[in-house]
Amino acid sequence: MEERKFFLCEIGGKELSILTGVLGAAVAEGLSADEINLLGNFIVALGSSLLTIAASEQMGCPYKCGNKDSTNNSNNDNDTSSTPTEAKDSKTATPH
C-alpha cells in the first residue's frame, strides 16, 4: 500500500504563504472585526494545540494514553537523543 502524504506537505513555503493570505481574506469577507478576532484567536489556539501534540510526539514523551512507561524517560540527563542541536551547541559554545 502506497503511503499518502498530507496535502500541505506537497506545497512549497511561498505557495503556503500565498494560500493562507487568500484564505484569510476570503474567510474575513463579510465578518465584523470582532468576528475576525474571535475566529483568528480560535485558529491560533488550535495551531498551538497541534504544535504541542507534535512536540510531545517528537520528544518521545513516555506518557501516552495514560501508559506510564518509566523506561522511556526523556528527562534523563545522559540521554541526548531528543535534545535539539541548538540546545547542545549552546551549552558548549564559547563567547565571542
Descriptive account of the structure:
The protein is mainly α and 96 residues long. It has a domain at 32-74. The protein is built from three helices and two strands; from the N terminus they run H-H-E-E-H. The protein has helices spanning 13-28, 33-59, 85-92, and strands spanning 63-64, 67-68. A two-stranded antiparallel ribbon has the order 1-2. It is flat and about 45 Å long. The model is unreliable at 70-74 and 85-92 (pLDDT under 50).
List the helices and strands and how they pair.
Blueprint: H1 13-28, H2 33-59, E1 63-64, E2 67-68, H3 85-92
Antiparallel strand pairs: 1-2
Brief overview, please?
By secondary structure, this protein is mostly helical. The protein has helices at residues 13-28, 33-59, 85-92; strands spanning 63-64, 67-68.
- SS content category: mainly alpha
What is the global morphology?
Answer: flat
Fraction of residues in H or I helices: 40-55%
Would you tell me the overall average pLDDT?
Answer: 77
Order of helices and strands: HHEEH
Annotation keywords:
single chain; 96 residues; mainly alpha; two-stranded antiparallel ribbon; 3 helices
